[in-house]
Design a protein that fits this description.
heterodimer, A: 302 residues, alpha/beta, TIM Barrel, Alpha-Beta Plaits, 2 domains, 9-stranded mixed β-sheet, two-stranded antiparallel sheet, 13 strands, B: 819 residues, 5-stranded mixed β-sheet, 3-stranded parallel β-sheet, 30 helices, 47% helix
Chain lengths: 302, 819
């Protein structure tokens, strides 16, 4: 039985493909984008999340921890990550959900059991399942098994990907995917490395490969002021997308915002928002116009 | 003595953008409206302070003093009504096209001392309380004290009722286990079908007189009773004709003195319309609206029935007039819309009559729950939407006033275009229209024994309760506080708040061996209280049939004329009594918590739980947090909790459904709470679902506040597990952040969510678009708002989980609509 690690299953997902969708978030991502909105999706491991605002200081987790890794301090619970094995006992006993585990090992059948309950909503809305993350293609066996099972059920399948994987895996996944939501951040390799920590050569190659294979692709661009909303990047992105094989691609712009910053705190890490900003209305309009000039429809929002 | 009454008189959560009567109108601006006339009329309606008019009470008291005993009760009632129609002050305001007020001017509310007589103290409280004030002048209060109060002492319907109730009933009632509707107002919730657009009062009078002429006094033992009822009906037809003609006379007089020829012509047209309807059937769109309005006023002047009066499928009734006139070129779309606006404002001019025995703390609502049904299906099952439906949605959106409420009815054959237009109005955040599923409620009514056609012609009356329009008395008898029943069970029959015995001694829960023991005790308690309630409701029904018949209402509801019986005495084709069960979410979550933590996981004992409840969880925060965060709650598509909800619901159906009432009909349940869940929460200690003492219980069949943490699709699946066709209505309130409704695509998807719920058999859903005030409230009491999911492209998080800076940012974005 194939097992995978996911960190969330969201219902009434209306920004991740056609109709009303259920989105499965895979844990683990090879990129580390500076603006990441789902930081709990980066590590492939189960992690502990702690929200001090919810903590009532009952100390049950301190008692429960088999490793003695939790300590109650004036600032709340402090976890010694060197000793923590992420066994999850602390989260089990926590009465308030101040401590929660993010990430869990699941089988395909376990995910399907959740998905099957949504059938009426998929039917009514012509929706389906979107696999997101993290980077779902990091767990290809699990992903393929899940997509195959969805295919047998006739459920629409969308895969939201960074595109950073091998061409073979990508094409294998493409055979059982109805729609890709393909993320494009920056065209310039150096800037891409700077903001996401990885090179984009394979991402761009894979995009061409995928388009040439005849796959349905929507392009998604997280638009971050000061990072990728400049004329140069937008013009190059528009040219790239316009030159892709297959039907004309639709572009979705996801404007940056910093509402997710406290998720970083809960993971015990800080957030460096410097240099990143929310695009203004005028900037959004300019970007939309730039895509339009390249013959592409750009829509704001997922 | 009986001071704690709340009933269907508080408003469902309604967005503050619905200006109505809640907020002070913007200064120096007339507010919205399609043209100057509508802006002025709306402004007047919204800014006029509600007042009490003692005119009706004076007329009635004088008439009763003079005539009581000279006539049969039905004839006395009809003559009283006729006398008032002859003498009451007639009002025609500047700008008006549709005319008629129940009182002497807009927002002037009469009293009904024959049912409940306000005391001098009541008037003082109404004058000075903070919310929902009704003003009465000192002079009027003096007059009332002199002329009205002495006569009615000991004679009111309310005193008749309370002098006869059993002690056990009184104890349960005072503990807040249930409410009783009929001690404040008469049975109401009446809705009309299309009859009055086909037959005028003269036609109906003729039918009544024919019936009298054909009476068989030798063989029909009820002949004399029928004769009296028919005489009364004929007199009441006359009364509304007189009422209309007096408007015609006034309009003609005003026209003669009017310097403005354009207005003079309008006044002459008013006079012409008022001479035509209601005496004759209407021929034009405008006459049809005025016809309904006179019938509306007739029923709410004759007696004070619950939930005012309701035109039913008004768009369907008006559509033929609209289409005919548009084709003939005698009406434009614009003119039709203006007339509808005039009508809408007329309804808003009529606040609900205030209750008696009010305390300064208690506030009711001005809303009298006239609810315009838009869309739906026709008698033959075909789609009922028309251009008039869209016109009405425009009116609702543009006027956004408190009354009338509106609902859209979306069957499988209703076009998406209509649904999307309705959602566009919903997203403005006025709290309406609510959305109903005819495919379910038609089956509810067919199951109750209505014909398919009569059921299709039905819909909702005021809140979520359904009936066969124009043919049914579907009376709400009162709310049942189901979580209170569980509280009394956990206290072996005692009300822990007062220490009084208010229920069965069903056993000490500390001796219960398992969950089934507890559930059986709860069920026994439930059956006991329902039987108590029904016994008194039946008695009250008889009192209304005997002492407060409503002959005019009987004229417009079939088959009262045919049967020669009053609306309150089994005259209608269908006679249904409802008990409204409140707090399904609270009771389900409480039972789930006890089952899981006490009986299964044994995290804590029954003893410890009862002690924590008695102390409102003080010193037991770990227990409370464990319950709140680690219990499967209703509304998350979790079978652990949902199966308990289904079980409680099925047992409520079993205990209530099918019990006979005294009018040949049956009792059924519906799951309405309006805002009685607030009152019921006030009389309830801490509950086992972690809810603190005094806080609201869950409303309708909605999940407990904040318990549904997995989004709206999971809520509808949980609700879809209830066999809703066995009720006479369920209620689902859903909170939505505006960020979920930004684009047309979002609207289409919400439409699909609604369609999904209705495919699962849902009866009703209503959306409260979250505004700044709600988010501020969520910061204050996070437990009640755990469901508030903030969603932005590519990201979502619970509002509660954000720190205060980010919460502030979300609030600003909500304010600026900048998601």
């Amino acid at each position: 039985m194939d097992r995978g690690c996911i960190f969330d299953i969201k219902k009434y997902s209306i920004n991740d493909g056609p109709g009303i969708r259920l989105t499965v978030f895979f844990k683990g991502c090879p990129l580390s984008c500076a603006w990441c909105h789902n930081p709990e999706g980066i590590s492939p491991k189960v992690q502990k999340m702690y929200n001090a605002a919810r903590c009532i200081g009952c100390g049950l987790c301190v008692e429960a921890c088999p490793e003695g890794a939790c300590a109650l301090t004036a600032a709340g619970i402090v976890t010694d990550l060197a000793r923590c094995t992420a066994c999850g006992r602390c989260a089990e006993v926590c009465p308030t959900t101040a401590t929660e585990m993010t990430g869990r090992e699941v089988t395909v059948d376990e995910v399907l059991a959740v998905i099957d309950r949504e059938q009426v909503i998929f039917d009514q809305s012509e929706g389906g399942v979107t696999v997101s993350g993290g980077e779902p293609l990091q767990q290809p066996r699990f992903l393929i098994a899940l997509l195959d099972a969805l295919g047998e059920r006739g459920i629409h399948r969308a895969v939201d990907t960074t595109g950073l994987t091998s061409g073979e895996v990508l094409l294998e996944v493409a055979r059982r995917t109805d729609l890709f939501l393909y993320d494009l951040k920056l065209v310039d390799p150096a800037r891409h490395r700077r903001w996401t920590g990885v090179d984009n050569a394979r991402i761009l190659d894979n995009l061409h490969l995928l388009a040439a294979s005849g796959a349905e692709i929507d392009i998604r661009i997280p638009l971050v002021a000061g990072v990728n909303d400049d004329e140069d990047n937008i013009a190059r992105t528009a040219a790239l997308v316009a030159g892709l094989a297959g039907r004309k691609k639709r572009v979705y712009l996801l404007p940056y915002h910093d509402i997710m910053t406290n998720k970083y705190l809960r993971l015990g890490s800080g957030y460096q928002g410097g240099g990143m900003g929310e695009p203004s209305k005028a900037d959004l309009a300019r970007v939309v116009a730039r895509f339009a000039a390249a013959g592409l429809e750009a829509v704001i929002g997922g | 003595m009986f001071e704690q009454i709340t009933s269907c008189s508080t408003v469902p959560e309604r967005g503050p953008r619905s200006q109505g009567n809640f907020t002070a109108p913007a200064t120096a601006v007339d507010g919205p409206g399609m043209n100057e006339r509508i802006r002025r009329l709306r402004h007047l309606s919204v800014t006029t302070e509600p007042t009490i008019s003692i005119e009706r009470a004076l007329h009635e008291t004088a008439f009763y003093k003079e005539n009581y005993g000279k006539y049969s009760i039905p004839v006395l009632r009809a003559l009283t009504f006729l006398d008032h129609c002859r003498r009451k002050t007639i009002y025609i305001g500047d700008d008006e096209l549709i005319v008629g007020e129940r009182g002497p001017k807009p927002k002037a509310v009469p009293t009904f001392p024959e049912l409940t007589c306000h005391s001098v103290e009541d008037f003082h409280v109404l004058n000075t309380r903070e919310m929902q004030r009704y003003y009465t002048s000192a002079e009027d209060i003096d007059t009332y004290a002199r002329e009205v109060i002495p006569y009615w002492q000991g004679r009111t319907q309310r005193e008749r009722i309370f002098s006869h109730v059993p002690e056990a009933w009184r104890a349960a009632y005072e503990a807040g286990m249930f409410t009783e509707f009929m001690e404040q107002r008469a049975p109401g919730h009446t809705v009309l079908d299309g009859k009055i657009y086909r037959r005028g009062m003269l036609d109906l009078q003729r039918e009544i007189e024919d019936n009298i002429a054909r009476l068989d006094y030798l063989n029909d033992p009820l002949a004399n009773d029928k004769a009296e009822e028919w005489k009364a009906m004929a007199i009441s037809c006359q009364a509304v004709i007189v009422f209309a003609e007096r408007h015609a006379e006034l309009a003609e007089a005003m026209a003669r003195q009017c310097g403005d020829e354009r207005r003079a012509e309008e006044l002459r047209e008013i006079a012409r319309v008022c001479r035509r309807v209601p005496a004759n059937k209407p021929e034009t769109f405008r006459e049809a609206i005025q016809m309904y309005w006179f019938c509306h006023l007739g029923t709410i002047t004759e007696l004070n029935g619950w939930d005012a009066m309701n035109p039913g499928h008004f768009d369907q009734h008006l559509a033929p007039f609209y289409q005919r006139e548009l084709a003939a070129g005698t009406l434009t779309r614009e003119a039709a819309k203006e007339l509808l606006c005039c009508f809408w404002i007329k309804v808003n001019n009529h606040p609900a009559p205030p209750k008696v025995g009010v305390t300064a703390r208690e506030s009711g609502t001005y809303n009298d729950f006239t609810n315009i049904n838009i869309g739906g299906v026709k008698r033959d099952g075909s789609d009922g939407t028309s251009e008039v439906s869209y016109l009405m949605l425009e009116v609702v959106e543009e006027l956004h006033i408190l009354q009338p409420g509106s609902s859209v009815h979306v069957s499988a054959r209703t076009p998406d275009r209509f649904l999307h237009s309705a959602i566009n109005v919903i997203r403005q955040g006025h709290g309406y229209p609510s959305v109903f599923n005819p495919d379910t409620y038609i089956m509810e009514m067919v199951r109750q024994g209505k014909t398919l056609e009569d059921a299709r012609e039905g819909g909702c009356s005021g809140c979520i309760e359904v009936g066969a329009f124009g043919k049914e008395a579907f009376l709400l008898t009162g709310y049942l506080n189901v979580p209170k029943v569980l509280e009394v069970t956990l206290n072996n029959g005692l009300d822990p708040l007062s220490g009084r015995q208010v229920g069965l001694a069903s056993g000490d829960p500390r001796t219960f061996q398992g969950f089934e023991d507890l559930y059986e005790a709860f069920l026994a308690q439930l059956r006991h209280v329902i039987d108590q309630k029904i016994r008194v409701s039946n008695y009250i029904d008889r009192m209304f049939a005997k002492y407060a018949p409503a002959p005019f209402l009987s004229v417009v509801i079939d088959d009262c004329i045919t049967r020669g019986r009053d609306y309150y005495d089994g005259g209608p084709r269908y006679n249904t009594s409802y008990i409204q069960c409140c707090g399904l979410g609270t009771v389900t979550d409480s039972l789930a918590a006890i089952k899981k933590h006490v009986f299964e996981d044994r995290r804590f004992t029954m003893e410890a739980l009862l002690a924590a409840l008695a102390k409102d969880f003080q010193g037991a925060e770990v227990m409370r947090q464990t319950i709140v965060n680690k219990t499967p709650f209703f509304g998350n598509d979790d079978d652990y909790a949902d199966s308990i909800a289904v079980r409680v619901y099925d047992d409520l159906v079993a205990a209530i459904d099918g019990q006979p009432n005294i009018k040949g009909g049956k009792y059924h349940l519906n799951m309405l709470s309006t805002t009685c869940h607030i009152y019921f929460g006030k009389v309830l200690g801490a509950s086992a679902n972690g809810r603190l003492a005094g806080k609201s219980i869950s409303d309708g069949t909605s999940p407990s506040h904040g318990a549904d943490t997995n989004g709206p699709s999971e809520v509808i699946k949980s609700l879809g597990k209830l066999d809703q066709q066995k009720s006479g209505g369920t209620l689902l309130n859903q909170r939505f952040l505006p960020s979920l409704l930004k684009t047309d695509r979002d609207i289409a998807k919400l439409g699909k969510l609604i369609r999904s719920y209705f495919a699962l058999g849902g009866h009703h859903i209503q959306f409260n678009i979250v505004d700044t005030a709600t988010l501020l409230a969520a910061q204050e009491s996070p437990d009640d708002y755990r469901d508030l999911l903030v969603r932005m492209a590519g990201y979502s998080d619970y509002f509660n989980d954000m720190n205060s800076d980010l919460q502030r940012e979300v609030i600003e974005r909500t304010e600026n609509d900048a998601f």
